[in-house]
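Allow me, if you will, to draw on your knowledge of protein folds for a short while. I have a record of one protein: its chain in single-letter code and its fold written as discrete structure tokens. I remain grateful for any guidance, and I place the record below:
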Amino acid sequence: MTWGSPQGYRQGAPLINLLPREIGERRLVRRQRTAIGAAFALLLAVLGCWYLLESSQLADARREADGEQAVAAGLRAHKTQLQPYADLSAEIAATEQLRTRVYATEIRFSSVMRDVSAIMPDNVWLTKMTAAATGATGGATGATAAAGTTGSVPSSGAATATSGTTPGSPGADSPIATINFTGAGLGHVDVGQLLRALARGPKNGGRPVYLNPYFTSSQKAAEAGGEATVTFSASVDLSKAAYSGRFQPTGQQGTVTP
């Protein structure tokens, strides 16, 4: 490399900045402002995209909400149309509950008459039969039937057995009703068979329906040119198994609903 060559001159010559310092500072400020402006423009672009995205999602949410409100309005209108059926269903349920309570203590004396006719000995017949069901207030409701008639009497509650009642005597074991018989037979043995048949009488759910068969009187009538007969009076109590159980929930027949 020779002295005075351009390359040697550029490397060895000093660089002198003749521009005023203020111009350099203004250039730096302009570059900073340009960078800030570009960053701000980029931020605005990002915010614009985010706003458009959120606006689209908001519009979709509003459309979905409008659809749900329309469905809810339709369901409310349908519910209004079906309300009479709901009211009717509630009335039916209340009626069934009332019927359950009313029939909880029903005694069907037609069934009692059928039982009595089935177990009646051949040489015994009834001339009168009365029934009395003791109510919750201590009063009694009665039914009287001639032999061969049928009927039913609803009982309003279970009878309360008299304290100190002898087992097997009338009123023992808290009966719900009492039946009194009047009849006749060919002999005392025949009449006794009636009470034994009542003691072995039918059961309901494994519980005896008839309790405490008891003679009140048994008298042999004088012969008057024919065969002598025995007139008698007797009674038998009914247990809670005598309840008909009609319209009661399954498994609760024969029980009293408070």
About this structure: Residues 21-104 form one domain. The chain is about 45% helix and 20% strand. Residues 136-163 have pLDDT under 50 and may be disordered.
